[in-house]
Structures are given as C-alpha cells and as structure tokens.
Design a protein that fits this description.
- The protein has helices at about 1-5, 15-100, 105-120, 155-170, 200-240, 245-265, 270-280, 290-295, 300-305, 310-320, 325-330, 355-370, 380-390, 395-410, and strands spanning about 125-130, 135-140, 140-145, 175-180, 185-190.
- By secondary structure, the chain is α+β, with helices and mostly antiparallel strands.
- The protein is elongated.
- The model has no long low-confidence stretch (mean pLDDT about 85).
- Bound molecules: fe (ii) ion.
- Fe (ii) ion binds next to loops.
C-alpha cells in the first residue's frame, strides 16, 4: 500500500528514493519515539532527584538540629565540668583547711581562716559567724568584729538576723543561715541582691558543724589549760613552803620565757608548754631538804649533788600528768649547757629541747638578778654581761641575742661586747 501510495508501483518515484524516504520516515518515527521516551525518563528521574533532594534537605535539617542539641549538651557538660572542678577545688581547700584545724590556733585566727575558706563557696555573699555575743565577718579580705546587742543563745533565728543587720548597719534581702544546737554559734550567708543564687542549705549546715566542732575543741583545750595552770600553781605553792622565793622566781622566769617564745614566733601551743615548764621547772626541789635549799652558805659536794637531781625528779613527777609529757622534757633539760657540760644528760647544742634552752636563759637571768640566801643580787648590766660572756658555752648564743633584744625593747640599757 505504501509502495502504491508513493507511486512506486507506477514508477512515479524511483525505487531507491522511495526506499530512502521509507527508511527516513521510519528513522524519524523511531527518533521521535526515543526522544519522547527520553523526555519522560528525564522527567521521572528529575522528580526522583527532587524527592531525594528534599529527603536530603530534611535529613540535613535533622542533623543540624542534632548538632545543635549536641552542642548545647556539650556546653552543659563543660559548664557542669567547670562547676565540678570549682566544687572540687573548694572541697580540697576546705579539706586542707580542716586538716589545719587545731585547738592551738587562737579563736580570732581560726575565725579568719574559716571565713576565708567558706567565702570561696559563694563570693556573692557576705559570710559572717557569730559566737556568743561576737560577730565576725570578712570585709575586703580583712577580719572585722562587731558585738551583737545580746549574748547567745538567741530566742529565734530571726532575732539573730535582726541583731546582725543592726550590728552591720545594712539590710540584706536574703539570708541563709544555721545556728548550732546549743544556740551559741551561727554561720550566715547574707545577700544584698534577692536575685542572686544562694548557697545550699545543706552546705551551710555542714560548715556550721565544723565551726561548732572547733568551738567545742577550743573550750576543751581552754579547760585543759586552766586545769594544767591550776595544777602548776598548786605545785608551786607546795614548793614555796620548801624554798621561800620559788613563786616569784618561777613567775618571773615564765614571763621571760614566754616573751622569748613569742619573739621566736612559736605557736600558742608551744608558748603554753614553755609557760607551764617555767612554772614547774624547779618542782623537783621538793625532794631536796629545805635546809639545803635555804642554806645561807656554800653547798657541800653532796648537797650540790642532791640539788642537781631536781630536774630529773621534776620530770618524773610531771611526765605522769596527761598532756604535760612535753613539759616534762623541757623541765628535765633546763640545766643542760650549750657546750654539753650541763646535767642531767650532758646534751649539747640543738640536742637540747628549744624550750629548755629558753628556760635556761630565763632561769639564769632571774636567779642572777635576785637575792639568794647565799648571795646578793647582781645588777642588770652584770647579769647581761654574764649572759654575753657565756653565750656559746652555757647558753644558746642565738637565744641570748633574742633575750637581749627583748630587754632593749623594754628600755633596759644593754651594753654588748
Ligand atoms: Fe633549776
């Protein structure tokens, strides 16, 4: 039919042209169909790509959101870590502070250390503590003390806060505080700004317990000190019946020894031990007959030997009293000499306990400047010369210098060399 249509039958168009046209027509149809199917395919693929792109975009948004969440979590973690680190540091500070607590530290020194350690838990607060009538707080790093209007125990916590606001002359919007069970001690965190985050109640409670423990320790220590001073004075009184000048001598030796100990910067506990040793240093003379101790003339060698036993006897008596063991050591060695020629053990130099070396100078100076049954008192300048001449032999030369400095500070004319 196509051949007929193209007139190939009648040979209007040559056969080769008709074949060419036929092939071209078929080719055209195939090309058109291919192009059409290609377009449909491209359209389909484009749609798929768009869909995939949309999914990708959505996925990307999810990832971004997760990233943001992770970043926020990371920030929270960093913040928590920083707070943990800071808490750990404060905790360590507090531990090292707690390990340094000793009843030998004076109340005011302890309160300053305590407030300084506690302040680190919340630098926004004004931290104050109340003990009895006194209120202590730190202001720009230095300790301040004010008196509340009345003594503890306070009728109520509000009363305490009211008194404190009045004493400090300022108003506080917020107060976190704890009062000890007996109402004697209180710890307060005071805030001027109500919006500031406050310290935790439990922490204040724990810190107040530390304060209470120290206060009880201190009271216990003070009772022990009073008791040992009472015992020392009782012994001294007994000795006074035996050797007439003992009380005055021992009291003066104590004054000199305490001044030396303080000038050397010894802590209060050591000062107290030296003070007690000064009062008791001649206690062993109880074992020496009164006639020997008060003999106006020179002692015989046997009598001298008897007198020389007094440091050992005193130490033996004292060492059985709990808390006075170190005092016994000082007393035992107060007649040792720097050059090792003393008694009872012939110790030399720094082998001799520091307290005993101090006592040795204080004892000698007091003895030299006082009248005795067997001799008249030396003048101050003669006694000073004796100390200087015997420095490095009988006495610790450095301590002699310390003693001379004390005398100079007190207006005593000291001519050295
Ligand atoms: Fe003595």
């Amino acid at each position: 039919m196509i051949i007929r249509y193209l007139g190939m039958e009648k040979r209007v168009v040559p056969r080769w042209l008709a074949t060419l046209l036929l092939v071209a027509g078929v080719g055209l149809v195939v090309f058109a169909s291919w192009t059409l199917s290609l377009r449909v395919l491209v359209k389909l693929k484009t749609k798929e790509l768009l869909k995939a792109n949309e999914e990708l975009k959505q996925l990307n948004e999810e990832i971004m959101a997760q990233q943001q969440e992770l970043s926020a979590l990371n920030e929270q973690l960093e913040d928590t870590y920083a707070r943990l680190e800071s808490s750990l540091k404060r905790f360590n500070d507090m531990l090292s502070f707690l390990s340094s607590i000793s009843p030998d530290v004076s109340r005011e020194r302890f309160y300053a250390m305590f407030l300084s350690a506690v302040q680190r838990f919340d630098t926004n607060a004004l931290v104050a503590l109340v003990n009895g009538r006194d209120c202590y707080f730190l202001n720009e790093g230095s300790m301040n003390k004010v008196e509340t209007a009345r003594s503890a125990p306070f009728d109520s916590k509000d009363e305490l806060v009211g008194l404190l606001k009045k004493a400090l002359g300022t108003n506080f919007e917020r107060v976190v505080y704890e009062v000890s069970g007996n109402g004697e001690t209180a710890l307060l965190f005071l805030y001027r700004d109500v919006a500031v985050r406050c310290v935790e109640d439990d922490l204040v409670k724990a810190l107040c317990s530390v304060l209470t423990i120290y206060t009880k320790l201190k009271e216990h220590e003070e009772t022990l000190t009073t008791l040992s001073e009472g015992v020392s004075h009782a012994f001294l009184k007994a000795l006074e019946f035996h050797e007439h000048h003992t009380v005055k001598h021992s009291e003066t030796v104590k004054e000199y020894a305490v001044k030396m100990a303080r000038k050397l910067g010894l802590d209060e506990r050591q000062v107290r031990l030296i003070s007690c040793a000064a009062l008791l240093h001649d206690l062993g003379k109880l074992a020496v007959p009164s006639a020997v101790l008060n003999k106006p003339g020179k002692l015989s060698p046997d009598e001298l030997q008897l007198v020389k036993q007094h440091p050992t006897i005193a130490a033996e008596i004292i060492q059985h009293i709990k808390g006075l063991e170190e005092v016994a050591k000082i007393v035992r060695h107060h007649h040792e000499r720097w050059d090792g020629k003393g008694y009872p053990d012939g110790l030399s130099g720094e082998e001799i306990p520091l307290g005993a070396r101090i006592l040795c100078i204080a004892d000698a100076f007091e003895a030299m400047t006082s009248n005795r049954p067997y001799r008249k008192a030396m003048s101050i300048s003669e006694a000073v010369s004796e100390l200087i001449n015997n420095a490095g032999e009988q006495f610790d030369p450095n301590l002699v210098q310390i003693f001379l400095e004390i005398l100079k500070e007190e207006g005593v004319s000291v001519v050295e060399g």
